[in-house]
TrEMBL record:
<protein>
    <recommendedName>
        <fullName>Sel1 repeat family protein</fullName>
    </recommendedName>
</protein>
<dbReference type="InterPro" id="IPR006597">
    <property type="entry name" value="Sel1-like"/>
</dbReference>
<dbReference type="InterPro" id="IPR011990">
    <property type="entry name" value="TPR-like_helical_dom_sf"/>
</dbReference>
Length: 245
């Protein structure tokens, strides 16, 4: 599983202008560095994400965001959000906060941020609190109302089972077994487009996409928790406390 490493965090609270067509500053606050990828990288990631709808729609959303296609980006992030994808829920909150692809709506932005922080991942939880501090009393009241509606459709209680069912279906499609059994003899290779299908040069080994943990709900959620609670977030280069040391 490859989670997007760069989380838009400290810059997430610069004001948007309320327009659907984003300002350069708003666009910069919503697009992640990891959204930008070449065609080959996108193809490889898409193949690995094929069995997991949260990862697949998150990847498509990131690709659309990099291109400035905000309507499709929002659509894809919403689809990923239905499968308990906290990063995609976070991205939606930023779009509403900055008015990128949608009219600026701080109350709805907070509701999505609260949903993204449901598992108390530190980055998302801190951002949620910063948003809350900037809301008016009326916006806070509406944010709570919007949040109740979102949780009913996107909260872990209903969204995690959706992904778990998708994992079960993916197991059943694995070559050689209708019940999802895989042994070490399974080898899957795919060549990037334009290369000779019978030439191993440039091929991509897809066997890891069937690693047991990726289709095991308990292990998959544990991996997400480990990544989002303990790092894999770019915070910039370190510096010495004493330059003379």
């Amino acid at each position: 599983m490859e989670l997007l490493a760069t989380v838009l965090f400290a810059a997430a609270l610069s004001a948007g202008d309320g327009a659907v067509e984003p300002t350069p500053d708003a666009r910069a606050a919503v697009v992640a560095d990891t959204d930008r990828m070449n065609a080959h990288t996108f193809d490889v990631r898409a193949r690995f994400a094929n069995a997991l709808p949260n990862e697949r729609h998150r990847l498509y959303g990131a690709d659309y965001a990099a291109k400035g296609d905000w309507g499709d980006a929002l659509k894809q992030f919403r689809l990923a959000a239905r499968y308990a994808d906290k990063y995609s829920q976070h991205r939606i909150s930023l779009m509403y906060w900055h008015g990128v692809g949608v009219p600026r709506d701080p109350a709805l932005a907070y509701a999505w941020a609260d949903l993204a922080a449901e598992r108390l991942y530190p980055t998302f939880a801190i951002l949620r609190e910063k948003m809350w501090a900037e809301l008016s009393d009326a916006e806070r009241e509406r944010a709570l109302q919007e949040g109740a509606t979102l949780y009913a459709q996107y909260g872990d209680k209903v969204a995690k089972p959706r992904l778990e069912k998708a994992m079960l279906r993916a197991k059943g499609r694995i070559t050689g077994s209708r019940v999802g059994n895989v042994d070490g003899r399974l080898i899957v290779m795919a060549n990037p487009s334009g290369l000779n299908a019978y030439d191993g040069a440039g091929s991509v080994d897809l066997a890891p996409m069937y690693d047991e943990w990726r289709l095991n709900p308990k292990r998959y959620w544990a991996a997400e928790d480990a990544i989002w609670k303990h790092g894999n977030v770019e915070v910039g280069p370190t510096t010495k406390a004493n330059p003379d040391d």
